[in-house]
Amino acid sequence: MEVILAKTAGFCFGVKLAVDCVYDKSKNDKIYTYGPIIHNKNVVKDLEKQGVEIIEDLEKDINGKVIIRSHGVTPKVYELLNEKNLDYIDCTCPFVKKIHRIVDENYKNGKNIIIIGNKNHPEIIGINGFCNNTALIANSIEEFNNLCIDKNKDYILVSQTTYDITTFQKLVENIKESNIQIFNTICNATNDRQKEALELSKQVDYMIVLGDTNSSNTQKLYEICKKNCKNTYLCETIEDLQLNISEKNVKIGITAGASTPSAIIKEALNRMSEIENMSFEEMLNESFKTLHSGSVLKGSVIRVTDNEVFVNLGYKADGIIEKSEFSNDQNINLKNEVSVGDEIEVYVIKVNDGDGNVVLSKKRLEMNKGLNELEEAFNNKLVLKGKIIDVIKGGLVANINNVRVFVPSSQISNKFVKDLNSFKGQELDFNIIEFNKSKHRIIAGRRDLVQTLEDEAKAKIYDNIKAGDKLEGTVSRIVDFGAFVDLGGVDGLIHISELSWGRVKKVTDILKEGDKVTVYVLSVDKDKSKISLSLKDINQNPWILAKDKYKLSDIIEGKVVRIVDFGAFVELEEGVDGLVHISQICQKHIAKPEEVLSIGQVVRAKITEVDTENKKISLSIKEVDSQDK
Q1: Which of 148, 208, 282, 289 suits 141 as a labelling partner, its CA being 20 to 30 A distant?
Q2: What's the predicted TM-score (pTM) here?
């Protein structure tokens, strides 16, 4: 008997995150799940023993944390959670979240929504909520053909993440309407699991599908396998299976739905080994006898030196991982990384190195995993973290998930970067903007991410800033007409006239780039992205004090600061000028003020009029001269 377990069997990462979260949080808190966390009775029963309670109604008394399951919920559920001020954790699968965003954005832009999937499934109910429950829903090609699609309207089409990929592809091929934009939202894990089940079911005599009968993705796996292997069985646990095998040399395939825990899969493998009166360990050893290059398997560390790790593979020869194949970091201390007895997953480079040893690599396995993760990130527009490790011609090299990835200089920021070396060693977020596995061409960038962060920061500032606000900022740029000040992601302009209550000839007389300043907001124009600022404190406006300081008939002393055809302006103090009309300069008639006065000359004058509301003070030098005589 040969038992073959599908590599993708069991929890997908979205389900695992949700289940792990419930188990973790239930250790210290009272936990409620909005609906069963997954479609698996065994897991749900186990969680109930931990005190986890399932709720379908948020109106009941809730004294603890609410966890939203991976299927997701409608916007109204979020609204109710916030209205009731409930503490909740959103464990919606990222692939489902992506569909929510697609539906929400397109519905708001006036498009109609078509969803392919089971209308009663909680995932579909949640998605439909993001278009106000107006979506057309079909679970088969026949149902789709019966939908009332208006050729004069624009539609988008999305799919349940666990939908049968073969049926979806056939459905899409038959769509003739040009007004339907198609989004393939079946998650990669579901796609891989279904493809693998399809191929495995063609190779075996018996096929076992493990999972809850209420699980949509498990049911689809069963349907796919049944088409190729008539001896296909669907069961929640191996205990439910009544399987009598009399033939020898049969092949048994095992796969499991995304909501099937690993414990149930292990139990099934053990039961299969009992049928043959062989321990599971022995069965694994037998399977390893067909070792070949490219295999990925687990072994046990039996010895560690400074330059090598020796691994027992259950094969006739041990495996060796050279230091250069353990990690890209050649400064690594192998003895700090693994110990004797550790279980380790490895990649087989060569079955026989000439001395009978199996040549292994841990680095290549991690790189292959990294490549798969990068491909998933490229297909689903996910953000990954990476570290800049080198600067080369035309850009930089980043280590993202153990893969060397090229980052063009134009993609490192949304602004020109003069010195790329400043990024070396930094850990940053990246988008994968090009992925071609066959050509080994992978390109990452962060220009759009930086722009998005800046746009969000600007929007936040514009939403919160208002005229009259007092803010701190940094002078970012000096121009002839003023200075730009960075307010934390948005620049505002101080016009030269707003730098001081007094006269300013040059901006650089007052400010220089890099200065920290306190500014006052004069006006905000969000539509034009303009913020007008002032350095002048309104409470220090000299004209406010001028009313009490300068009285009619007072004799003052001031400096001539400006001469015009009709007179001369005399500075009484910084920010306050008075006008001596040409007729009030001297007793005799003059044609020009320059005949008597000059810039910088100190004069005595009598106040003849005070109008602080219009910032006007009239002066007479002539009347002072007549009094002195």
Answers
A1: 208
A2: 0.41
